[in-house]
Amino acid sequence: MLDQLIRFVVVPLVQILVVLAIISLIVAYLTLLERKILAFMQVRLSPRRTGPHGILQPIADSVKLLIKEDIIPDKADRFLFTLAPIVTVIAAFTALAVIPFAGGSIEVFGYTIHPWIADVNVGVVFLLAISSLGVYGILLGGWSSNSKYPMLGSLRGAAQMVSYEVPFGFSIIGVMMLSGTASMVGIVEAQREAHIWYFVPQIVGLFLFFVSGVAETNRLPFDLPEAESELVAGFHTEYSGMRWALFFLAEYTSMIIISGIVTTLFLGGWMRPFPNVEALSWLNFGLDGISPVLSGILWFSIKTFLVIFLYLWLRGTFPRYRYDQLMKLNWYWMIPLSIANVVVTGLVVVLAQK
Amino acid sequence: MFRTEMLDINMGPQHPATHGVLRLKLLLDGETVADTDVMIGYLHRGVEKLCETKSYPMIEAYTDRLDYVAAIYENLGYVEAVEKLMGVTVPERAEYIRVITAELQRIASHLVWLGTHALDLGAMTVYFYCFREREIILDLFEAFTGARLTYNAYRIGGLPWDVPPGWIDRVRHFVRIFPERQKEYDTLLTKNRIWLGRTKGVGILGAQDAIDFGVTGPCLRSAGVEYDVRKAHPYSVYDRFRFDIPVSHNCDTYDRYLLRMEEMRQSNRILEQALDHLPGGEVMAKVPKRIKPPAGEVYHTVEGPRGELGFYIVSLGDDRPYRMRFRSPSFVNLQALPLMVRGSLVADVVAVIGTLDIVLGDADR
Fold first, then answer.
1. Is there a domain that residue B19 lies in?
2. Is B205 helix (H, G, I), strand (E, B) or coil?
3. Does the beta carbon of A41 lie under 8 angstroms from any beta carbon of chain B?
4. Cβ separation of A317 and B125 shorter than 8 Å?
């Protein structure tokens, strides 16, 4: 009884707490990283006053946001207005549950702990389901503010996220067909067995997935729901203080999750490059000797960081799409391309089996 | 079946993309702009009336505050108008330095336009690249006039002082590096698919409409009308320089972007020539200490970065004008905005405000 209680309740709870704490910290520092990288691209300085090279800036920011006055507009729907950021954050954090940060497991007091919270056999589908929930936060937040700019922003956001859901889902199907599983851990293992990371056979899928992922997370060049120069701040115009911060927490968490999924599905997850070539095992920097979990986390972080860097790079380079162009891009190009990708991959898989 | 309503929405006066305190009342049908009402006056200071109470040299400081992004042109237009009224001949060196500062200012002003226009359309990096180069120009102005924004750079009859030692070499250095820097903006925008999509076919203003509204500057030239005051009615020593007036025929935002980029290159060309032929000598003509132009009236125009900038002065022979009137290009060009955005999307409104390159201090006066 006690054993089961610990195994099925305490251990997952501890895992969840650890992941939430670490991801929240990473999100805080991701904002600083973004400012540093953008500043580097834009020949200017980034925050430098709070601590050496501004490393305390995220803490200062969070303290400021926490102690800010909590404003709810008079005419807003108080319940939904409060609910919206919470829904967004919950949707973003829940998706973390199925991401495998590393392979293997560690033993603590006789309990086997995996470096992922849950290995669901329909992990990929779970991700799709959860990530679509994020749109509720945007829609509710914009609508409940009872203000015009947020409403325009949330309508844009809803249309955009629902549309990009389609190529987002289709681009994963190719990977699922190649690996024959929908479990995130299973997909990584399948990439090891196939001796190839799926970004090679699924380069189109990777492209489609990443682009629609950027659209899903409302980042430039697809940040139309926010579009500061047109809609002031889009769906979160009326939000301030911690509620506003929750929206941003969700946005950055989604960025990490999309990058994590790209890593897992297309870039071999926690595996070092060429995991089957023994001669390259120095790439684990001896961490394997301590625990394969450590080297897994290292490589997962490196790959995820590279994808996040791509996100920031996009922001430094591109102008914003216009609403109609964004939709046209999706319905005219991305969806047909993703369907074609599914068909071609399916054909190849079937022919290869024969 | 469903009841749909038009959405009345206020864009401004506090809005990140209206370039100051411009207020637009947009009537939206979904995301499409059905009608626009431009409202100005949030920055009205009554400068024209104030000028009637100030002596001629004092007025120049007021002109700085009109178009604060290109204050040199307000100085230049005003000072030349008074000189025209008085019949003063300005020394050659002063004229050349005026041309040099004016063309530097045109580049600086276009850089502000390019940066903010790109920022409005979401391209953030261009802004910082532009301001990096503008910083060099502002430093030059600071070295010459002591101010970085409101220069009060000229005096009636010439310049307050000669340029500081080494200044000409610094300008030369800028002229040398600027073409390379401009290529960086090119790489970010000119062939960018998204930029093309956002600017091509947006904010069309045909030649006849432009002329009817009195629109001048790059907005008029993008409609194929070759009108530039520097060529049409040469002032100062502009008739001595070789430069082209870029003209294009698509009347859209992308063309105006290319046109202003080309204007910066032409300004650089003028700078090169002016620096090469800069004469020596005095910078101030002999003018009376108390400036009292003869009774009469004068209208003088210069080609500012935004278009034709006119100064109308009525003098009764007193030491202060009887009436001052500014023809500010921002105010005139702004009239075309409702026509340019009708039927387009909200995002295009921002693009059109950017491409009109308005300065509200200039529009409201």
1. yes
2. coil
3. yes
4. yes
Which ranges of chain A would DSSP assign to H, the alpha helix? Answer: 2-5, 11-41, 57-66, 78-94, 123-144, 148-179, 184-193, 203-216, 228-231, 241-266, 287-290, 292-317, 323-328, 335-353
Asked if B198's CB is within 8 angstroms of A322's CB, the reply is: yes
- Closest residue in chain B to residue A37, using alpha carbons only: B125
Residue A352 near chain B (CB below 8 Å): no
H helices present in chain B, as ranges: 47-51, 56-64, 71-86, 92-120, 124-145, 167-189, 193-199, 207-213, 218-221, 229-232, 253-276, 329-334, 337-341, 346-356, 360-364
Mean pLDDT by 10 residues, chain A (354 residues): 80 85 88 88 84 85 87 84 88 85 75 77 84 84 84 84 86 85 83 80 86 84 73 79 86 88 85 73 69 80 89 86 86 89 88 82
Contact yes or no for B303/B296 (Cβ under 8 A): no
Q: Is residue B1 part of a domain?
A: no
B122:A149 CB<8 A: no
CB contact under 8 A, B17 and A229: yes
Q: Is residue A316 part of a domain?
A: yes
The boundaries of the domain holding residue A90 are 74-353
Interface residue B122 vs chain A (CB under 8 A): yes
Give CA separation, B156 vs A115, B75, B86, B227, B278, in Å: 78, 10, 10, 28, 20
B348 contacts in A (CB within 8 Å)? 322
Domain count, chain A: 1
Residue B147 lies inside a defined structural domain of this protein? yes
Q: Does A38 touch chain B (CB under 8 A)?
A: yes
CA-based nearest residue to A221, from A326, A295, A342, A128: A326
Q: Per the domain annotation, does A116 fall within a domain?
A: yes
Query: Which A positions 273-332 lie with beta carbon below 8 A of chain B?
Result: 315-325
Tell whether A60 lies on the interface with B, counting CB pairs under 8 A. Answer: no
For residue B10, the cross-strand partners are B25
Contacts of A315 in chain B (CB under 8 A): 124
- pLDDT single digits (tens) B256-304: 898 899 999 999 989 988 888 888 888 888 888 888 888 888 999 998 8
Q: Which CATH number characterizes residue B155's domain?
A: 1.10.645.10
Provide the β-strand partners of residue B304: B307
Residue A68 token pair: 């800010």
Is the distance from CB of B145 to CB of B151 less than 8 angstroms?
Answer: yes
DSSP state of B238: G
